[in-house]
């Protein structure tokens, strides 16, 4: 119903919250407790206004359309919903110790293997707006300027298409750059401002991917970054994901997770802790 047909009420009531939370859980794995109702309301108000809707029940109806052109509109709006509810906070070289470990421990044997003609795969599995994967690329570049000529690839993926587009564009504001040391600024941006160096792109691929959906990649990974995303999932979803990562990593591969996360459940015996939020696949 379009605003004007009846009085607008942009308050998210309990039943509407439950309906939206169920869609969000199904689409992303993100579990929203009741305490998140005000947050969800404020994040979605802009969508309701943009669509000219009179209230959240109309929004729910739009998201749930299942026929013909309506289904296309509903699918497009579910993408908007995902983008609105995901938290994209990130930063270059966030949780610095992972990049130190990557440079000093994980990468040197992988680079040697790639130079000997072997295959190496790295995955930034919830890359948000890209700072994480560009930090991986910069770390790799310092160790292996010829990475682009080797069978060494870095996959960057996220469920939020808008964040992923920002990641792929590789353009960042002055504020993000100012937080970097001069050395890292040079490594990422060269003398210019704004866009990451084209050389860093050589080994990177960007792809929309939902961690709770199918993973179409063939072959296993040597390194997986999955940081600051499972905190938004419920425990069964977290544990399923750890099991899938255990399958997706080669023996001896590395898993980096966020500062408040830890590997639990049936996959835990397959991961040996090796320092802060760093695990080695047994
Ligand atoms: C807080 S950011 C973390 C970014 C980066 N990994 C870091 O630690 O700085 C969380 C990211 O997880 C993504 N995300 C949430 N649910 C996801 C899912 N089911 N599949 C893939 N990515 C997801 C969000 O879109 C968001 O970009």
Number of helices: 10
- The name of the CATH superfamily of the largest domain reads Vaccinia Virus protein VP39
* CATH class descriptor of the largest domain: Alpha Beta
Which CATH architecture of the largest domain is right?
A: 3-Layer(aba) Sandwich
Structural class: alpha/beta
- N/C terminus separation: 56 Å
Question: How would you sum up the major sheet?
Answer: 7 strands, mixed
Bound molecules: S-adenosylmethionine
The CATH topology of the largest domain comes to Rossmann fold
Number of strands: 7
Total count of domains: 2
Q: Show unreliable segments.
A: none
| Overall pLDDT metric | 95
Task: Give the helices and strands as they follow along the chain.
Answer: HHHHHEHEHHHEEHEEE
Amount of beta strand: 5-15%
Strand order of the largest sheet: 3-2-1-4-5-7-6
Q: Can you tell me the overall shape?
A: globular
Radius of gyration: 21 Å
How helix-rich are the residues, as a percent range? 40-55%
Describe the protein's architecture and organization:
By secondary structure, this protein is an alpha/beta fold. It has two domains: 14-85, Chemotaxis Receptor Methyltransferase Cher, domain 1, CATH 1.10.155.10; 96-281, Rossmann fold (3-Layer(aba) Sandwich). It is 44% helix and 14% strand. The chain has ten helices and seven strands. The chain has helices at 14-28, 37-51, 56-63, 68-85, 96-115, 131-143, 161-169, 174-178, 182-189, 235-248; strands at 120-124, 152-158, 204-208, 221-226, 249-257, 271-273, 278-281. It has a seven-stranded mixed sheet with strand order 3-2-1-4-5-7-6. Strand 1 (120-124), helix 6 and strand 2 form a beta-alpha-beta unit. Helix 1 (14-28) crosses helix 4 (68-85), helix 2 crosses helix 4 and helix 5 packs across helix 6. The model has no long low-confidence stretch (mean pLDDT 95). Bound molecules: S-adenosylmethionine. S-adenosylmethionine (SAM) binds at residues 28-30, 86-90, 94, 126, 128, 132, 158-160, 163, 210-212, 227-229, 232, 258. S-adenosylmethionine binds next to loops.
């Amino acid at each position: 119903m379009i605003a004007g047909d009846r009085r607008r009420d942009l308050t998210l009531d309990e039943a509407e919250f439950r309906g939206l939370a169920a869609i969000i859980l199904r689409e992303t794995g993100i579990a929203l407790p009741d305490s998140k109702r005000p947050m969800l309301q404020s994040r979605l108000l802009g969508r309701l206004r943009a669509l000219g809707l009179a209230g959240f029940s109309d929004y729910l109806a739009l998201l749930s359309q299942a026929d013909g052109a309506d289904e296309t509109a509903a699918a497009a709006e579910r993408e908007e919903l995902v983008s609105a509810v995901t938290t994209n906070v990130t930063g270059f070289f966030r949780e610095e110790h992972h990049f130190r470990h990557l440079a000093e421990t994980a990468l040197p044997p992988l680079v040697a293997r790639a130079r000997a003609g072997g295959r190496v795969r790295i995955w930034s599995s919830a890359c948000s707006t890209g700072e994480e994967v560009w930090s991986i690329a910069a770390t790799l570049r310092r160790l292996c300027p010829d990475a682009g000529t080797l069978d060494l690839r870095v996959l960057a993926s996220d469920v939020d298409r808008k964040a992923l587009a920002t990641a792929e564009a590789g353009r960042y504001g002055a504020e993000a750059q100012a937080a970097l040391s001069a050395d890292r600024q040079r490594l990422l941006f060269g003398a210019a401002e704004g866009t990451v160096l084209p050389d860093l792109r050589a080994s990177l691929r960007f792809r929309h991917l939902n961690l709770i959906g199918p993973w179409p990649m063939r072959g296993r990974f040597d390194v997986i970054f999955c940081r600051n995303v499972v905190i938004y999932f419920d425990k069964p979803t977290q544990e399923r994901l750890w099991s899938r990562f255990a399958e997706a990593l080669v023996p001896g591969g590395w898993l980096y997770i966020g500062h408040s996360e830890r590997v639990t459940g049936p996959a835990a015996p397959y991961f040996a802790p090796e320092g802060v939020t760093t695990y080695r696949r047994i």
